[in-house]
Design brief:
The complex is a heterodimer of chains A (355) and B (510). Chain A folds into two domains: 14-190; 195-321. Chain A is built from eleven helices and 17 strands. Chain A has helices spanning 21-30, 52-63, 119-124, 148-151, 167-180, 190-193, 196-205, 211-216, 230-244, 325-333, 339-354, and strands at 14-16, 35-37, 41-47, 69-77, 84-95, 102-113, 134-138, 156-159, 186-189, 220-225, 247-248, 257-262, 265-273, 282-287, 290-295, 302-309, 314-319. In chain A, a hairpin with a 4-residue loop joins strand 16 and strand 17. In chain A, helix 2 crosses helix 10 and helix 9 (230-244) crosses helix 11. The radius of gyration of chain A is 23 Å and the shape is elongated. Chain B is 36% helix and 20% strand. Chain B has helices at 30-45, 65-79, 86-93, 106-124, 139-148, 172-185, 201-211, 243-268, 277-290, 297-303, 427-430, 438-448, 457-475, 494-501; strands at residues 21-25, 54-59, 96-100, 128-132, 160-164, 191-193, 225-233, 304-310, 312-314, 317-319, 337-342, 354-359, 366-373, 392-398, 402-410, 418-426, 483-487. In chain B, the strands form three sheets. Chain B has a nine-stranded mixed beta sheet, sandwiched between helices. Chain B has a six-stranded parallel beta sheet with strand order 3-2-1-4-5-6, with helices on both faces. Chain B starts with 20 loop residues before the first strand and ends in a 9-residue tail after the last helix. The A-B interface holds A 36, 38, 40, 64-68, 94, 96-98, 103, 197, 199-204, 206-209, 212, 215, 240, 243-245, 300-302, 305, 312, 314-319, 334, 338 and B 3, 5-9, 16, 19, 44-47, 50-52, 85, 87-88, 91, 123, 125, 399-400, 428-433.
Chain lengths: 355, 510
């Protein structure tokens, strides 16, 4: 893919020859005494779409409001005939506490053309801030450039498995790399983050009196998901089954229906695609005592939990951000990682995908 | 055995609030609208508030539930940390109720019990958190009435807790009397004495700094530390009618006995065996027990400076002297400034003085702890100059929360000259996420049953025992130390400077 005629887009900043990148960065900071450089991490975004630089620059602008970092944007064009690297530098500034100082995170954007496999590690990783961890967001499907020299330097890998064309194949590639690197990097899947607030709402729902008794007698679980969020729904289902200590039975009675075993007692799990702008508009736990329903309407910024057990009903609101990529990454970077737990869940997700 | 919610993945790291009814005594006071309700709202905005939680405001003025909610809504719009969402407020405010009664009126508590039973029947669940936000003279009265109405006794399997605002007594005797009144009504494990300084992120970070970083604890002792300073400066005087309370309390009781003593204990304590409430508080009590007591008025005079501000300028504005302030006795002998030298008799701190200073109408508002390390044993650089090469670690409590370390660095150039430079960590630039208000954390902990950030009865009494000796010297029959003076807008009286100068030290320039 070759850059379109309006490349580079506004916002990328000043183009600097690769050999003068260090000098360019120095001049960037010397140009204003009111700017304070802030950095807690290296944050790289890799995409094999040349037009990704504009969108990712906007994304970094949002993420740096909370997570000061050295941002490295990489747009790779592996199909280009000639090997070349172009670079641009800019800074994303926010007002500090009390509006007094401008706190800035620097961004280096690279357009890397050509097929050489080690172009990314050799070019980009010389521009990491030393001692600071590297968060690396691989956008899209893994390619031949997903190789040991690259992932050996990553501390935190960000992916969005919901956008993969073949999740089973991609998950296998990811797991091989993770095991090859002996767990050297942690995995932050934005599809998993997308259901974070729903998981929190489910956890909060089962804090309420009477709900654990209900959980012990549940007969039916329904998860509705919006278009393109089938994997997120399966991850959520796998999490519920795993946390509750249930097991997923082999085979399924009908499309989108599964059987869970609670120490031999069957529970029906139904996964249904619905027209919705939300990834998971409904999760419902039904049993003889009543129902616990979590709904996420497109117009409501809160997940609404309705607990109807016996007489009366109880509602609870759990905040849930709109789920833009910048919000998801920002949320994800606030939290620790449980990669072993994630891979353990994936085994069940694979079963749910294959069935 | 209690059933465990299997969907809770993070139970170890966080306190979960349990469903309860929070009864705020003195609900028409400033604290409810400015701090407590916005704190509860923000907990709700974070999705942490149990949906069955109820709030009951208990105060003397007649008001309807709706009138009370409207007042609180106006305050919340102005003061909520996360803004004000109409939809969330509509849901949250339905859990707020108002109960009108005199604090001494037994029938008011009987009616309160009826209201609480109604709320329990509507799903509140039976747990109760009584928050005493009244004037301190009403604390024993409210406690007595709660007991008389049987409200101190929780139903089986439920709890009843009490949160008590400062000041907890005015001296050792009154603190002991209040502790007895509390213990007559509630068990110590159900008693939460608030010191909002402990709810601040930076105060909580003192233990993290010391015990989660391997590089500090080995040098956190008298082999490497020369002395420690704790400063709490305010650039306000007696505005807003606060003179009435302050004139009775004074700086020593208002600030030193609680906030500064708590900070001192966090800096000086030994590592606790665990992070349980008593694990941490046992170690803090050991610090209080190790404070070297002043022997007589002369000893107090040598080590403690009290002062009042005279007319001056603060922040470009003319400021009246303390004795000319609203609601202040023109012959007042109440201190508006204290500087003191404290010794702790332990192996770790033998020979390391802790200098505390706190006062009103100082040049700026700041609270910080500075740890001054000993000078390098053999100074190779800058010989023959008066430069101070000692390292200083500063923990800024407020504002600009953070930590800085002063180190020496070579000045670029052919000559080997060094200069002091600062390595600086700031919460605001490192973590974009705003810190929760101290009251949010403290209310969450009280609802979750974690008393770590609250003072225990013996802690408070030990602190008062130390402070009482100073008060007695100041107000005793003979040998009273002088009341010093400083112009408003200065950093305190000359006598406070002398307190350090005679030890060959200076206050840190702020």
């Amino acid at each position: 893919m070759t850059p379109d005629p309006i490349f580079p887009p506004a916002g990328l900043g000043l183009e600097v020859p690769l050999a003068e990148l260090g000098k360019g960065l120095k001049q960037l900071w010397q140009s204003s005494s009111a700017m304070t450089k802030a950095s807690l991490a290296n944050f790289a975004i890799y995409s094999e779409r040349v037009d990704s630089l504009a969108a990712n620059t906007e994304l970094i602008r949002e993420v740096t409001r909370e997570h000061a970092c050295r941002a490295l944007l990489i747009a790779a064009d592996p199909g280009a005939a000639e090997v070349s690297v172009r670079a641009w530098i800019t800074a994303h500034c926010q007002l500090g506490a009390g509006g007094r100082k401008s706190l800035c995170s620097e961004q280096i954007a690279f357009l890397i053309s050509g097929q050489s496999l080690n172009l990314v590690p050799s070019t980009v990783f010389s521009w990491l801030e030393s001692d600071l961890p590297l968060t690396f967001w691989w956008q899209g499907d893994f390619s031949a450039r997903w190789e040991p020299h690259l992932y050996a330097v990553i501390d935190r890998l960000v992916i969005d498995s919901g956008g993969w064309t073949d999740p089973l194949k991609q998950l296998a590639l990811l797991e091989v790399a993770w095991r090859h690197d002996a767990g050297g990097f942690t995995v932050n899947d934005l599809t998993w983050t997308r259901v974070l607030h729903l998981r929190m709402a489910i956890a909060a729902a089962f804090d309420e009196p009477g709900t654990l008794e209900h959980l012990a007698r549940i007969e039916e679980i329904t998860i509705e998901f919006g278009h393109g969020h089938g994997l997120a729904a399966r991850m959520l289902a796998a999490w519920i089954i795993s946390q509750a200590g249930w097991t997923l039975e082999a085979g399924r009675p009908a499309a989108g229906r599964f059987v869970i075993s609670q120490q031999g007692r069957p529970i029906t799990l139904t996964l249904t695609e619905k027209e919705s702008s939300r990834p998971i508009p409904l999760v419902q736990f039904k049993g003889p005592l009543g129902a616990v329903s979590l709904t996420h309407d497109s117009s409501n910024p809160y997940i609404q939990t309705l607990i109807q057990l016996g007489e009366g009903a109880l509602t609870r609101l759990t905040p849930s951000p709109s789920g833009t990529p910048a919000e998801l990454v920002t949320e994800r970077l606030r939290r620790g990682c449980r990669t072993k737990h994630y891979f353990a869940l994936l085994q069940m997700v694979k079963t749910l995908l294959q069935a | 055995m209690e059933a465990i919610n299997p969907f809770r993945e993070d139970q170890a790291a966080r306190t979960r609030p349990q469903s309860c009814t929070v009864v705020i005594f003195g609900a028409s006071g400033d604290l409810t609208g400015r701090k407590l309700v916005p704190a509860l709202y923000n907990i709700a905005a974070d999705g942490e508030l149990p949906p069955t939680l109820k709030v009951v405001g208990f105060a003397r003025r007649p008001k309807s539930h709706e009138g009370f909610r409207s007042e609180l809504e106006e305050m919340n719009k102005k003061l909520s940390r996360q803004g004000h969402d109409e939809r969330l407020w509509a849901s949250f405010s339905q859990s707020i109720f108002y109960h009108q009664s005199e604090f001494e009126d037994a029938s008011g508590y009987v009616r309160l019990a009826g209201l609480l039973d109604e709320l329990d029947a509507a799903g509140a669940g039976g747990n109760r958190l009584f928050y005493l936000s009244t004037s301190p003279e009403y604390f024993p009265i409210v406690l007595e009435q709660l007991k008389a109405a049987g409200l101190n006794q929780a139903p089986a399997g439920k709890w009843a807790r009490v949160v008590i605002e400062k000041p907890f007594g005015t001296d050792l005797e009154t603190a002991q009397t209040l502790n007895r009144a509390v213990h007559d009504t509630f068990a110590e494990k159900d008693t939460y004495r608030i010191d909002h300084y402990l709810g601040k992120e930076t105060a909580q970070n003192i233990m993290v700094l010391r015990f989660a970083n391997a590089i500090f604890e080995p040098i956190w002792n008298n082999r490497y530390i020369d002395h420690i300073q704790i400063t709490c400066a305010e650039n306000l005087g007696m505005e807003g009618g606060r003179g009435g309370y302050y004139e009775k309390a004074g700086c020593l009781r208002d600030m030193v006995q609680n906030h500064l003593m708590q900070l001192l204990s966090l800096v000086a304590m030994e590592p606790p065996t665990d992070l349980s409430a008593d694990g941490v508080r046992d170690e803090k009590v050991k610090v209080f027990r190790s404070l070297r007591q002043f022997t007589d008025a002369a000893d107090v005079a040598r080590n403690v400076v009290r002062a009042q501000y005279t007319a001056g300028t603060v922040g470009g504005k003319v400021a009246a002297g303390y004795r000319q302030e609203d609601r202040i006795n023109p012959q007042s002998m109440t201190e508006a400034y204290v500087a003191m030298k404290i010794n702790i008799d332990t192996w770790r701190w033998e020979g390391v003085p802790f200098y505390l200073r706190v006062g009103k109408q100082l040049p700026k508002k700041t609270t910080e702890i500075s740890v001054h390390f000993k000078r390098p044993p053999h100074v190779l650089f800058n010989r023959g100059t008066e430069d101070d090469p000692a390292n200083v670690l500063v923990i800024r409590i407020q504002p600009d929360e953070g930590i800085s370390l002063r180190i020496a660095s070579k000045i670029p150039g052919p000559a080997v000259r060094t200069e002091r430079v600062k390595m600086d960590f700031q919460y605001s630039t490192s973590f974009g996420k705003a810190s929760p208000e101290a009251y949010e954390r403290l209310l969450l902990d009280a609802m979750g049953g974690d008393a770590t950030l609250f003072a225990r009865g013996d802690e408070v009494e030990h602190a008062w025992r130390y402070i009482d000796i100073i008060e007695q010297a100041w107000h005793g029959a003979s040998g009273q130390p002088p009341m010093c003076e400083y112009p408003a807008g200065s950093w305190g009286p000359a006598e406070a400077e002398d307190l350090l100068k005679r030890d060959g030290r200076d206050w840190r320039r702020l």
